[in-house]
Specification:
mainly alpha, 0% strand
Length: 39
């Protein structure tokens, strides 16, 4: 697990970036056919 300090501005930026990447991946996964995801 990643240990990120929520009180550290850099830590907050990392969390924000990770959440953005996760949301983008979810959006892409929704667009892709299930067959591609299973590979």
């Amino acid at each position: 697990m990643l240990c990120i300090s929520l009180f550290d501005p850099d830590g907050l930026e990392q969390v924000r970036r990770m959440l953005r990447v996760v949301s983008i991946l979810h959006r892409v996964a929704d667009d892709l056919p299930a067959v591609v995801i299973e590979k």
